[in-house]
């Protein structure tokens, strides 16, 4: 590595001069004199307990309270697997002031204006964090309750054998549920991390350890780490009297004794940087290889950064961290662009954080086709290209503007900003400066391209210090030698590269000649409807519904939303063409439109407000297209709709690329494959094939997809404008929008050989006879560590237009959601995933109430009986008043309030239901008034109506047989 020593003098917004990250800084200031923002009250009690109090002037709905403990996964040895996480769970079981599970205390939550998610926690590598966020309307009582809860956590947790025993199962089930069908991959990753990084654990023995760890060892861990000198309390909100709060903190936490022993901790950072370079090979056992051959090899390259973490308490550390983040983003973007070819032979990404692992730039490479040497060579060449020639002016302008925009979004009047900043200060020692976002913006604004390119040469070494490889059993990569792999990297380092040229993006979607050919076709004005929407019929038969209004505050407030739909879908075609039909929009999306492939289209969209483009879909009963853009991109969005319908690009290479990506996604899913497969099995039994399958059924469908048939069906379903209704909502001028609608939607043509399609009537789908208990076959392509169970009450809607009945059903479903939690928190079931609720299916005209559990096999019989008992009690015993009041306040009133009804996303969905399913239009005030009139008797009446034996369907999926 060639280190270029130079000094760049930049000016901090407050007027301080400081040297850049490229030089050592002396006299930067002590922690007490430099790092603490002057608007924060910070202190440390004699026992070492730290506190921060930050007043916010802007009105806040909540008082935000965090308790940090400096203990996380990094502080465990192999005999203490998951102990930090276990204590996080057990903190809610009971302590001195809250002896029963605090989340079940609905009276307390209602009294403090809290919802259940206002009390939560999480465990990270270096800390555990607890939240308690009472309403600002009950500030005094909320503060006192939060302090007592945190005091229980700090020193008064119960930690009985019974509590620990009842939490072993949820800890186990949480891991299983979070990892889905990827347990072997997860264990391989933890094994690799344990060999690369000091303090990381190999979790391969998790299940055995979870069964047998002793109470004494966990209590010892609690007493060792839960000590006041490792704790910090953070309070942010509309604090008026900091002196009073400070006194309460002192009176609540001064009694905790300071341990006399010094804590022995491992300096993970120092150990990492002082150890030799690492080369680690890990075998990954197959999970779904029986269905798809797994030849994916993952390389993880780590380029150590020894300075940033140690200097993060200074301006130099903050700016050095920012430089690393920008570098990682630019490198990651170059990786993405290099892969923007069909059937790419590799996938690479980069990230930097001084927090997640010991400080390092991490480059992850996936080799898909046994071309490991080629993949590694290509990746290192891209890195060397960046190091040698630097960042282009186009790249620099974009990444700089994007990050300046991100810094602009950091709001010093936002509570989340301060909670994050003070947490980073306590855990990592990160500088807590006045006007930090302003200072970083000033530094970045003044940083030139030439200066940044000099920094790249200093920051990026030629050779990664640490190399990890994860490969499937039997793969040749498991025999690689360190000298061999590093030799490939050295070869890449000596290979000449050319300067990077930023790819140019298309400036238009359609050429002038194409645009001039589109005439303003006529329409029939049908006038305004009860909804306030304007209805038109274009000359080609398309119905257009325009709702021009000022939406209430929400994420889509300043956008134009579009949804076009037809009642014809895959049901129009023979069964053998099903997958060709539903996959056709995905194939087209992967191919592009007109003469632009998906990569060229992506370049164009990257400079618009709708970078995701428009989304076409074909489902069993419906075909449609959706879009969402700012007003300035409305014409571009309509052009893209026009191109998707009239000029879907056909490319066999793109089709093969789509197939490979589907297989890769199945082997590396972003969703829980087991849960998805279970849902698909239930849908088959209940005759519900309205939604497109994923998981094992979906990937098998890839093999059954014929590209020619897919395009034929796509053109047929999108080829008859008379089938379609387009709903458009947002704050726009109809006079300005109408000519564009005439030009693009009005010119959607009829396909000459369009065939008549008669879809299956929605009402023809019949339910099997209940009660029914059905075992869903476990797919052969993965093993299961737990059992999936679902109880359903499904019935036909007697009157599908009865909106009051649908609201009652919704209220009943939310009540079920709250009640199901008792199985874990009151009854001690080994559960983590506990879903319950309700869906009203317009497409199937059904009410569907469900309970879904991911449980250990031994508890299935008992849980079935408990679920049935809960249902019986809801029909026969008075409902819980506290639960009812909580769901009204936190769910029903907000959901059906007039303000939410005026949000853009809610409006277009309501209009969709009106025009797709003939749902009568109801004014928001009428539904709001009805919801506020609901009583517990109304909900119980609904329970008696729907929870009948003939509506009962039970489903189980697991590796063992159950009765």
Structure notes:
The chain is of the alpha+beta class and 963 residues long. The protein folds into 4 domains: 35-253, Cytochrome Bc1 Complex, Chain A, domain 1, CATH 3.30.830; 268-493, Cytochrome Bc1 Complex, Chain A, domain 1, CATH 3.30.830.10; 512-760, Metalloenzyme, LuxS/M16 peptidase-like (Cytochrome Bc1 Complex, Chain A, domain 1); 764-957, 2-Layer Sandwich (Cytochrome Bc1 Complex, Chain A, domain 1), CATH 3.30.830. 43% of the residues lie in helices and 16% in strands. The strands form 5 sheets. Strands 14-15-16-20-17-19-18 form a 7-stranded mixed β-sheet, with helices on both faces. A 6-stranded mixed β-sheet has the order 3-4-8-5-7-6, with helices on both faces. Strands 9-13-10-12-11 form a 5-stranded mixed β-sheet, sandwiched between helices. A hairpin with a 4-residue loop joins strand 6 and strand 7 (128-132). The longest helix has 24 residues, at 315-338. The radius of gyration is 30 Å and the shape is globular. Residues 1-34 have low confidence and may be disordered.
Brief write-up:
The chain has about 950 residues and is an alpha+beta fold. It has 35 helices and 25 strands. Helix content is about 45%, strand content about 15%.
């Amino acid at each position: 590595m060639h280190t270029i020593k130079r000094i760049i003098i930049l000016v901090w917004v407050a007027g301080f001069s400081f040297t850049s990250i490229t030089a050592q800084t002396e006299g930067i200031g002590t922690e007490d004199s430099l790092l603490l923002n002057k608007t924060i009250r910070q202190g440390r009690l004699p026992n070492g307990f730290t506190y921060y109090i930050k007043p916010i002037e802007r009105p806040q709905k909540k008082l935000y309270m965090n308790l940090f403990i400096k203990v996380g996964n990094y502080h465990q040895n192999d005999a203490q697997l998951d102990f930090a996480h276990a204590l996080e769970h057990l903190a809610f079981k009971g302590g001195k002031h809250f002896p029963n599970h605090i989340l079940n205390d609905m009276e307390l939550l209602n009294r403090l204006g809290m919802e259940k998610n206002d009390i939560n926690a999480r465990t990270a590598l270096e800390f555990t964090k607890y939240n308690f966020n009472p309403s600002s309307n009950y500030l005094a009582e909320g503060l006192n309750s939060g302090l007592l809860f945190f005091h229980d956590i700090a020193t008064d947790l119960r930690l009985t054998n019974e509590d620990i025993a009842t939490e072993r199962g949820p800890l186990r089930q949480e891991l299983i549920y979070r990892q889905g069908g990827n347990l072997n991959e997860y264990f391989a990753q933890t094994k690799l991390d344990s060999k690369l990084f000091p303090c990381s654990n190999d979790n391969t023995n998790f299940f055995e350890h979870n069964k047998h760890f002793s109470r004494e060892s966990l209590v010892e861990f609690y007493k060792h780490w839960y000590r006041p000198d490792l704790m910090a309390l953070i309070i942010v909100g509309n604090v008026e009297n900091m002196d009073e709060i400070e006194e309460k903190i002192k009176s609540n936490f001064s009694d905790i004794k300071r341990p006399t022993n010094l804590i022995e901790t491992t300096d993970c950072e120092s150990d990492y940087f002082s150890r030799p370079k690492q080369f680690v090979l890990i075998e990954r056992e197959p999970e779904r290889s029986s269905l798809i051959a797994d030849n994916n090899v993952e390389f993880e390259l780590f380029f150590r950064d020894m300075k940033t973490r140690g200097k993060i308490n200074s301006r130099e550390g903050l700016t050095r961290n920012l430089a690393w983040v920008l570098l990682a983003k630019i490198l990651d973007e170059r990786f993405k662009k290099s892969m923007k070819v069909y059937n790419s032979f590799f996938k690479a990404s980069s990230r930097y954080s001084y927090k997640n692992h010991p400080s390092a730039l991490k480059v992850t490479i996936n080799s898909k086709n046994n071309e490991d040497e080629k993949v590694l060579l290509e990746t290192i060449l891209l890195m060397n290209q960046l190091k040698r020639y630097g960042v282009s002016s186009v790249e620099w302008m974009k990444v700089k503007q994007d990050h300046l925009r991100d810094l602009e979004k950091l709001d010093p009047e936002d509570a989340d900003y301060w909670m994050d900043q003070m947490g980073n200060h306590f855990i990592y020692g990160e500088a807590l400066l006045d006007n930090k976002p302003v200072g970083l913006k000033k530094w970045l604004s003044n940083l030139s391209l030439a200066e940044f390119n000099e920094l790249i040469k200093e920051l990026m070494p030629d050779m990664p210090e640490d190399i990890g490889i994860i490969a499937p059993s039997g793969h040749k990569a498991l025999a690689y030698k360190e000298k061999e792999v590093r030799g490939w990297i050295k070869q890449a380092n000596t290979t000449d590269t050319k300067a990077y040229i930023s790819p140019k993006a298309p400036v238009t979607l359609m050429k002038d000649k194409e645009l001039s050919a589109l005439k303003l076709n006529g329409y029939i004005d049908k006038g305004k409807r009860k909804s306030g929407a304007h209805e038109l019929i274009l000359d080609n038969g398309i119905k257009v519904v325009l709702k021009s209004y000022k939406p209430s505050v929400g994420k889509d407030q300043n956008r134009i939303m579009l949804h076009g739909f037809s009642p014809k879908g895959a049901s129009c075609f023979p069964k053998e063409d099903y997958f060709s039909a539903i996959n056709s929009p995905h194939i087209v999306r992967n191919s592009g439109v007109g003469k632009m492939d998906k990569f060229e289209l992506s370049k164009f969209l990257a400079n618009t407000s709708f970078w995701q483009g428009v989304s076409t879909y074909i489902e069993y009963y419906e075909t449609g297209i959706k879009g969402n853009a700012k007003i300035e991109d409305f014409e571009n969005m309509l052009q893209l709709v026009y191109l998707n319908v009239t000029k879907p690009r056909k490319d066999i290479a793109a089709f093969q690329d789509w197939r490979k990506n589907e297989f890769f996604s199945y082997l590396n899913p972003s969703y829980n494959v087991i849960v998805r497969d279970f849902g698909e099995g239930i849908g088959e039994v209940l005759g519900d094939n309205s939604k497109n399958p994923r998981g094992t059924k979906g990937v098998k469908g890839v093999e059954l997809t014929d590209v020619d048939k897919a395009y034929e069906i796509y053109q047929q379903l999108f080829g008859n404008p008379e089938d379609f209704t387009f709903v458009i909502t947002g704050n726009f001028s109809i006079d300005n929008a109408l000519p564009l609608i005439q030009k693009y939607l009005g010119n959607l043509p009829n396909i000459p050989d369009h065939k008549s399609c008669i879809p299956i009537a929605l009402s023809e789908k019949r339910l099997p006879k209940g009660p029914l208990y059905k075992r869903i076959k476990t797919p052969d392509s993965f093993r299961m560590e737990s059992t999936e169970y679902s109880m359903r009450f499904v019935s036909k809607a007697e009157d599908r237009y009865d909106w009051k009945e649908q609201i009652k059903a919704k209220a009943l479903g939310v009540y079920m959601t709250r009640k199901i939690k008792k199985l874990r928190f009151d009854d001690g079931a080994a559960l983590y995933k506990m879903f319950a609720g309700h869906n009203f299916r317009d497409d199937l005209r059904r009410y569907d109430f469900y309970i879904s559990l991911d449980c250990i096999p031994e508890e299935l019989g008992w849980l079935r009986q408990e679920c049935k008992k809960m249902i019986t009690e809801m029909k026969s015993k008075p409902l819980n008043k506290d639960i009812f009041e909580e769901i009204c306040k936190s769910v029903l009133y907000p959901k059906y309030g007039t303000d939410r009804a005026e949000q853009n996303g809610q409006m277009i969905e309501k209009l969709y239901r009106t025009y797709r399913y003939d749902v009568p239009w109801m004014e928001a005030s009428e539904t709001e008034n009805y919801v506020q009139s609901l009583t517990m008797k109304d909900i119980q009446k609904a329970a008696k109506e729907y929870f009948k034996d003939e509506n009962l369907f039970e489903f189980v999926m697991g590796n063992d047989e159950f009765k």
